[in-house]
Write a structure and sequence with these properties.
It contains seven helices and six strands; from the N terminus they run H-E-E-H-H-H-E-E-H-H-E-E-H. The strands form three sheets. Strands 1-2 form a two-stranded antiparallel sheet. Helix 4 packs across helix 5. It starts with 13 loop residues before the first helix and ends in a 6-residue tail after the last helix. It is mainly α and about 200 residues long. The mean pLDDT is about 85. The chain has one domain: Jann2411-like fold, CATH 1.10.3300.10.
């Protein structure tokens, strides 16, 4: 299995995609390889930029930020995040300047993003934290925040669908689970009805 096969990139914001790397007792940032795949898959780090320094300490620091973001986002959805957590988020956002994003001409003639050099962990954490600050302070984006309707799923995503009708963090994951569960319930109900009809006196 490739390192990114079990990662999620569909929550609508980088900070929410980080929160989505855990859930239902599943840890998806299991090591440097997965963190590297997440950083490039979400676009925090442009593809082609070297990330040779990613190690276990990076993983631990991103997991810590993830837990902070999970608390803040869920608390804000329910009412109000703790001031101490907002201070921690501000500290992460201001701990370093995120890497400067430059434009270069790729070999095929298209324009591509790059960094002037290999990024450090603190700068990348700051980039994700600032994305969260931007999300939480944008009234329009906050109004699009939804928690997945899937049973036992606590993931939060941005609902930008027409009519704001999206119910699942992922149609392929939680949405498919609900469709399968619905099918099983209908099948069980039909089987029960058939058994009753075939009972004493039934034809």
């Amino acid at each position: 299995m490739a390192a990114h096969d079990d990662l999620r990139f569909d929550c609508g914001r980088i900070c929410l995609d980080l929160v989505a790397t855990t859930g239902e007792d599943a840890e998806r940032l299991t090591g440097p390889e997965h963190l590297t795949a997440w950083l490039t898959g979400t676009g925090v780090v442009p593809r082609g930029v070297p990330l040779d320094g990613v190690d276990g300490q990076w993983v631990a620091r991103f997991r810590a930020l993830r837990e902070l973001l999970r608390r803040v986002v869920h608390d804000e959805l329910r009412g109000r995040a703790a001031d101490a957590d907002l201070e921690r988020l501000n500290a992460a956002a201001g701990a370093a300047a995120p890497p400067a994003v430059l434009v270069v001409r790729a070999g095929d003639g298209t324009l591509a993003r790059t960094f002037p050099g290999p990024p450090d962990c603190t700068g990348l954490l700051a980039a994700v934290a600032r994305d969260a600050v931007g999300l939480l302070t944008d009234a329009t984006a906050r109004g699009q925040l939804r928690q997945c309707a899937g049973e036992s799923c606590s993931l939060v995503y941005l609902d930008t669908s027409r009519g704001r009708r999206r119910r699942w963090c992922s149609s392929e994951v939680c949405g498919n689970r609900e469709r399968v569960a619905r099918h099983r319930r209908r099948t069980t109900a039909r089987s029960g009805a058939g058994a009753r009809d075939a009972g004493p006196g039934g034809r």
